[in-house]
User: Fold CvpA family protein from Limisphaera ngatamarikiensis.
Amino acid sequence: MTIWILVLVLLASVTALGYRQGGVRVAFSLVGILLGVWLAIPMSPWMGKVLGWIGVKHPFWAWILPPVLVFWLINGLFKAVAFQVHRKVDVFFKYHAGDLHRALFERLNARLGACLGFVNGTIYTLLVCLGIYMFGYWTTQLGSEEGDPWTMRLFNRLAHDLEETRLHRAVAALDPLPEVYYQAADFVGLLFHNPMLEGRLARYPALLEIAERPELHGFAQDTSWTQLRQSRAPLREVLAHPQMTALMQNLDLLREIWAILEPDLPDLMAYLETGRSPKYEKEPILGTWAFDFRTAFVLYRKANPRMTALQLREARKHLSGIFLNTSLVAAPSGFVALKNYPVTRAPRPGETAPATEHRTITGRWRSENGRYTIEVQLEGQQTAWPVEIANDRLQIPSANPPLAFERDSV
Assistant:
């Protein structure tokens, strides 16, 4: 119902305005509208640079404002020219033509203006419905039962009515946005309504390297963020959280994340829904690996066959403590990180013996003929470890002590 009211108001008002302004001015406006629609997207990069110079940095405004401003600038230019042309024509018929010609012109000009105004109103209606179609897709995905602002509820209502009137089929044919725009909306909507998927998202292979950035660690460590997401708070509260505010202000990090996600959105959606990535599962080393102490201790016993039962018991107690939270991360770029890896350090003042501290050690992994090697720097020396992978288990027998991991999937 709201869409039909909107259509009637736009058509009636623009048609009436065309009748009042006349065919000359409305004809120029029509050309301006068509040219503005045609040039809005091609000239957006230029307008985006202008907005960047004047301080518009937010990614949303930097994306939506350029085509809108280009459209209205071109439209306004043609309206200004139309006013001057109309005034000259009006002066001619008022002072240089007879009364009959003047009356005929005014009648023709008004009726032609109404007809062209109806055309302009139709174009404006399609453009408004296109805006509802594009933004309503996002607001519908992110809508909650309660707590949403009135603007969001309005867009949801308009988008729903647009689909009921079947006008969405007409505007979809005019939609200039790429498919990735709607894939991104599907991804954000799925993540917003399923907070538990955040753990799985952090394990997506393409995001493993950037997930090690300190700016993103706060989400996992902030209990208030966890509670907010588990309570299924509305979008307004989620965006107002300090962690999300800091992320939205870090434009460089947002661009990096988008550059990673954009080509992989279909694969990412499949991963969030099934836990498997069709694109990255071809490289079995990719992913997050949790330390498997039982298998690691078996490898330790094989590497030290002469140890007594008492020595093995002491070794088990010691190793199970220092490797309790150790994990391994391998990303598609070749990045690898051993997190919470125990390293012996020199004794500090007041300490009588060396102690163990946990560090994150980064390195690279490479593959040759299906065999993997991890290269890290330990105690100032470059170390290369051959890796064995089978049945979601990763083993590094040559490490000291030997390491074993099992795939950590959520």
Remarks:
- The CA atoms of residues 23 and 108 lie 8 Å apart.
